[in-house]
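Objective 1.3, modelling of assemblies. Example input:
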Amino acid sequence: MASGRGDEVHRVLDAVWRMEAPRLVAALTRIVRDVGLAEDLAQDALEAAIRQWPDAGIPDRPAAWLMATAKHRAIDALRRRTTLQRKAEEIGRDLELDRAIAPDLDAEIDDEGIGDDLLRLVFICCHPVLSVDARVALTLRLLGGLRTDEIARAFLVSETTIGQRIVRAKRTLSEAHVPFEVPQGHDFEVRLASVLQVVYLVFNEGYSATSGDDWVRPTLCEDALRLGRVLAGLVPAEPEVHGLVALMEIQGSRLRARTDAAGRPIPLLEQNRARWDHLLVNRGLAALARAESFAGAHGPYLLQAAIAACHARARTGDETDWPRIVALYDALAQSAPSPIVELNRAVAVSMAYGPEAGLELVDALAMEPALQAYHLLPAVRGDFLVKVGRFDEAASELARAASMTRNVAERNLLLERARAAGEM
Amino acid sequence: MRVIVLAKSSPESEGVMPDPQSTESTEGMEGMEAMGRFHEELVAAGVLLATGRLHPSSAGARVRFDGSSRTVVDGPFTEAKELVAGYWIWQVRSLDEGIEWLKRAPFDGGEFEIRQIFEMPGYMESAP
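Predicted structure (tokens):
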């Protein structure tokens, strides 16, 4: 059947494209110094493959074919621009151009500098000149290999919205003349924090959807985990990168255990630990050990991973080392102070030293402006109130928490607990 | 999704092939380096989750179940047509991506099987 061959070409091309797109865009951005143009050129190479492969057959080295085709297009584009503008800066780039014109396919695929180019692309996608939403969309598109419609579905917004967001982001980068470089010194720390934030946002969007009926969208977690692992390879000397990977691996290990058959969320301590993904647990603990092997103060991702590891190491909920978790939250409150960390610390304190101690801490948070719309404050307070036997107050706190969350599964769970507290 | 890649060998070739890390074959060093590079690529792409090579079946055993009785049969499993010699577990977006990665592996012989792993360990799922 004629369409059989076409199907195979299409499938191979789709897979190779997703694997290679970030490397293509990174290498092309080095040549043309513009992410938007680089992506257009990469798309041109893809379209050339769509036209040529069905007749000519799939090349032996499809990735190298795409890279060579894309680079030639980039050089053509640059030559056209150079002829038009004859700018001194462009002529000065000729040396680099000659290096880019590599007829040898082996050289194309074994490009030693590709890791550096990818890292530069990472920093561009997460550049502070962009809004956080734009950073997330651009990162998923250019580094995660996701299509616009896939990003839109994952974030429950329209494809047009995401498409425009990406177009605007590329224009902003172009207009701001954001350099294709790895930042240095103090700037590196700040910019890396932005990269880690974007990756963790993607993970969390998948881990606990902020709205809608789906409790988890695990593929986003997988995308974030992959990005994190790639990043750990690109900047292996950064403990916070390994810390973030460890945190995501360990949290990801609980994905299958945190909902019941009806899709209702199961709290951590009630989860069946046999259902945790022990491959991910072990990977997470290994990444944490790597993060902890560096000297210096522990950053927020490493500390959160260390807390997650306390749960991962406990064979049953009863074996959890709560005093150590409290100590880690103390360190986290110093390293990255926030009302949410204080709230989590209160939970740990209640587990280590009793609900009264926890209640005292959450009561102190009641007036915290940042937590006024945060459903977990009344949810946690309601829990503590149940434990100290103040059931009526507990029921109204839990009902208030239910009215504050947009997640349907979570709201139902909170309402159930409110009813149970009311009947005690 | 996750896939497992199974390296197969016959009872005759067991422990001989595929063994990219062996230094005994003539192309040992080269094969080892190529394999090392391939592994680095898998790690750099965030694809490789776990890997392992198996000792020959002479060092293994089989446990046969029949009702409540269990029979232990020591290796080697000479009657088998093919034996698992090693495995990779990969995180990929599609089976096609897994196949593309597998095609890049630096082997010049042998057969490899790639299979999707069910996402819900511990729970029975019905096959499609």
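The radius of gyration of chain B is 17 Å.
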